[in-house]
Amino acid sequence: MKIAVLIKQVPDLVEGLEIDAGGKALDRDSLRYIISEADDHALEQALLIRERTGASVDVFTLDVGEARDSLTTALAKGAERVTLVAAGLEAAPGSHALAELFAAVLRPQNFDLIVTGVRAIDDLDGSLGGLLAGLLELPYVGLIRKVETGPGGETAIVQKEFPGGFVTELEVKLPAVLGIQSAEQPPRYVPVSRLRQVMKTAKIGEQAVEPPQAPPIAVERLFKPEEGAGASMLEGTPEELAKQIAGLLAERHLLK
Amino acid sequence: MTNDVMVIGEHFQGALSQITLELLGKARELAGPLGGKVEVVLLGHAVEPLTAQLGAADRLSIADHPLLEHFVPETYEAVIAQRIKQAGPRLVLLGSTSVGLDLIGPLSVRAAVPCFDNCTSLQVREGRVVAISQLYGGKIFAEYAVPETTALVAVVPGSFPAEPGKAAGAPEVLRLAAPPAPRTTFRRLIEPPPGDVDVSKVPLLVAVGRGIQNADNIPLAQELAETLGGAVCASRPVIDQGWLPLTRQVGKSGVTVKPKLYLALGISGAPEHVEGMKQSELIIAVNTDANAPIFGLAHYGAVADAVEIIPLLTEQIRAASG
Amino acid sequence: MMPTLIRFGPVPGWAILWVAFLAAVAIFAWRVTTLIRLLLLGRYENRFDRIPQRIWRVVVYILGQRRMLEEPLIGIPHLLIFYGFVVFLLSTNSMLLSGLFPSLHLPTVDDNRFLAPVVDVFGVLVLAGLAVSSFRRFILRPAGLQRTIDATVVNSLIASLMVTFVLAEAFRSVAAGAALKGASTQETVWVPFGNWLAGVFSGHPALVTHAIGLYYFCWWVHILTVLGFLVYLPYSKHLHLLAAPFSVFFSRLEHPGMLRPGVLLEGGMGAGRLTELTWRQLLAAFACAECGRCERACPSFQVGEPCSPRQLVHNLKMQLFQCGKVMMSGVPASKLDKETCLLEGLIPRDELWTCTTCRACANRCPVFNEHLSITIDLRRRLVERGELDKRLEEALRNLGRYGNSFGQSERKRAIWTQGLDFKPKDARKQPVQWLWYMGEYHCYHPTLQPVTRSLARILQAAEIDYGILYEAERNSGNDTRRVGEEGLFELLRERNTAVLRAADFKDLFTMDPHVYNTLKNEYPDLNGGRHRILHYTELLAGMFQEGRLKPARRLSYGVTYHDPCYLGRYNGVYEPPRAVLKALGLKVKEMPRSRSFSFCCGGGGGRVWMEETGEAHSRPSESRVREAAALDGVQVLVVACPKDHVMFSDAIKTAGLEGKLAVKDLTELVAEAI
């Protein structure tokens, strides 16, 4: 079985985000990129399937941000092949454009299963998984937290999350695209020594594709929510704060 | 393309989902200025009883078929795409939910129309439809015009009020064709383990997030909840660690709650969580990060360590109640 | 009177003795060979250098019994038993020789006027020593000291050896005396106890008549017991008799603050099998006498965590012996697969992760076993395999990506400076005399930031020329290394070394003992002796001494000082903090466990990054604050390490000591006083 994992780089929220002078995009100088969390889970899920069934795992990512590092990490975790997709873009494009690029890369390759994170923090025009499934005319299921392969490797049995702790189990005929919410176990840790070893011998494949046709999204402005506009902030030592909170509750007759 | 606004309805376990009413209310609001009608597309099996709640719509397009009893992305998508191509509405509103998110991508491609996600605001301004979506964990908002073509918009649940969607009326009913045999089949529904508290029914909630630091501190929160006469619930990271059962999860993939009191302790306020509790009557938040998004939503806040505050608060409440 | 000239039936005594002797020696030699083969399972490590230093160690710690004497109750009896053994070696050898070659009339110790009394006295002293040690083991029952069959057998054997010896002497005397009345035999020399006993026995005619027979009996029992002991020794924990001198000789001479670098083996970094440990690490199993000192000193063990250095070495021993059994059945060493497995074998994970790396164990061990190096090698392998506690993984990920375990942006490194009315010099851009390496806790942790500012103001006011690295600073890697992530440690070290080399400074100081330890001992490219690396308490002490700092007011607290593990035990810095407190006019009341016996706060070795196992009944930090609070008139526990500060502040709350004891960093007291 051949599995393709599509990962993307998103801004790292730890570093804080700033809007640039134009007001329509993020200030790229202050950005640092990290792998999208759900994509990390998608990779982990693929590796778990690989461990169980001997499937091969190919990882693709767009050449933006710390893409190479993500691919090296994927190799260190056990992926067979990793590919950097170069489309001559300066910044990460929207999901439609991304889906177009990956569809071009994947169409000739006959993967049985394509997995990616169900959503990313910068998804404005939908998420990659569903759009890609549409372009490749494959079935799609999202918000997945467990994947098993059916007998003969012809189907995938997936568990899809619903609110309130409910889960539905669906069976999908392969080839299919899956949007992963969380893998069956958290993404594995790669010891730095192994990472550095892999970095020395790593072969990162490169594939060039035509820039996408899909037009960029016309954002009129970006803005930050008003900070703390909602809450009246309480001040004091922890003991004083506890007293104040208890007082608020008492005022509203919420205490027994 | 017409000026109609189409709503993709959702239901679960025999009940109409709240998001459907929220979208219906918004659709009603937008249809006026746009000069179009409101249509609700509802798929399922034996859905007649639900249609009574959809009086606010002008038209109901119903596909009733055994294959549609449980949500299967492929089958729903096929029927809805067909209807969108037929009807050519101006706007298609979906919930940014387990249902809507599976549909929006494939629909966008099949119907060859643009789509947008994470929408929290929709307005008609000078003939244009202007939307705002939240991004980057709720830290940045993007305002944009929805293109002048059929467009799909997935809306964050809780963004619009449900009341306007509850109007009475007698919409015309349209029957949609049965779906083709799919490559995706429903196997079974897995219910959450029973016997635990249904936090959506508890009026006083003590909610813990990552700031609770480790499992050892959960009993402290439980003590506080007991003293208050309420229950403990949590955001996703706490549930993922296994410190509390899945039934206590509040948020997008968990339960939506509307308690009298929501004590958000060590919760940052990520959108996925906020979605599940933003309608709480009184929200008091404690977090060490002064910039935590929760403070934008809460009524009262304190920049402090939740682990420190919890036992102190328990004491204070005991003293006040005793 | 030659005991081996008597006949047992047709067979002469000396023949039987020869058989017994050769058999015993053969079994002993065969067993020792097996043990050496077991040691050879381990990796090679060069411990054959600096011979004079090694010999000196043996002199101080084996002949001088220095570590044993730290606990005089057992130290002195053991000293007696030890020297008793040495002395008896002489005596027994001569007895054996004369027994094996009876016709040669070889001179024996018993007949030597000078040596015989010494042996005699030692016989009794050893018995006295045994009495005390048995009392301690079976009645007092200190933790870690076990009442096993092995221990009982050994004690009994030694006791019977002494008893039979003294009795033999006595009966020989009586027999000689009786013989004198009849025919003449060699005169026996004067031995105090032997003669005294002989006097007592002489009053009993039955004993007198049978004296010679009893002498022979006692002699034979003695010699056969010796041979029996020889055979038993390499199978019992008394193996430490043979192994201890070697384990001390081959002990590690390098600074304990410098860990042995990771070696990349077939299975990866660290060790997962016996064959991946070094022969010296394996020798620990044989040298260990299961005295329990390590366990008694271990802070994790004290609070009920499943961490026990003694158990670790014991399990190692059991695993080795299992190998031995299989090897003796003919399987060659290269084919031992299951038997050499450590991580799937007898060593549970929890035992490895609950170690705080405080080194209290190795500090006490009389045979210089390296419990820590084994633990860390095993941790390295667990990291390699990705078998880590989830919180620890998160901390490591943060360290790798952001250079600090808090997961905060590196750009916020200097956020602590907000609140200062001056801007500390940027050591990346200007030359400075002192480089202040902050340490992540002093930069990011809200409890410590005020303390950091305090020191900054003190130094500014005293016109010390210092600078900081601002956003270029990363975690120094001390705890990363101790957690077993050697690769990440190397990465951090490379990066930090490059930054430090690019900066222009004369000397370096830090507030964090963990940073101090690793920069001083594990950054070879940095400190080619060019820079002095100090802990800030050393800097402050110097400033007080030079008069750059003078106290302006008297502080009236009763204080006690907690020696941080990585400052005190690891690096021997005990006096400077005390000197500062003295300069402030404070009288320091010492806790029972102070200086090198200081009790760890429980935060080291990455423990602050891990979940607790839930098995402990309390925390090391709680035990420590109670120890401080129990001192009369002490209101302040003075700390000089950020982890201590955080751990003890928490512990004071959970132990219910708020209002009775407060934690203050040394800086805070200095700030109050000047």
What does this entry look like structurally?
Chain A is built from six helices and 13 strands. In chain A, a hairpin with a 5-residue loop joins strand 8 and strand 9. By secondary structure, chain A is an alpha/beta fold. The N and C termini of chain A lie far apart (61 Å). In chain A, the strands form two sheets. A nine-stranded mixed sheet of chain A has the order 9-8-7-10-6-1-4-5-11, with helices on both faces. The mean pLDDT of chain A is 90. Chain B is of the alpha/beta class. Chain B folds into two domains: 171 residues, HUPs (Rossmann fold); 123 residues, TPP-binding domain (Rossmann fold), CATH 3.40.50. Chain B contains nine helices and 17 strands. Chain B has a nine-stranded mixed sheet with strand order 9-8-7-10-6-1-4-5-11, with helices on both faces. In chain B, strands 14-13-15-16-17 form a five-stranded parallel sheet. Chain B has a two-stranded antiparallel sheet with strand order 2-3. Chain B starts with a strand and ends with a helix. With 674 residues, chain C is mainly alpha-helical. Helices cover 52% and strands 6% of the residues of chain C. Chain C has 27 helices and twelve strands. In chain C, the strands form four sheets. Chain C has a five-stranded parallel sheet with strand order 5-7-6-8-9. A three-stranded parallel sheet of chain C has the order 10-11-12. The radius of gyration of chain C is 31 Å and the shape is elongated. The N and C termini of chain C lie far apart (85 Å). The model of chain C has no long low-confidence stretch (mean pLDDT 87). At the A-B interface, helix 3, helix 4, strand 7, strand 8 and strand 9 of A face helix 4, strand 7, strand 8, strand 9 and strand 12 of B. Strand 9 of chain A pairs antiparallel with strand 12 of chain B, so a sheet runs across the interface.
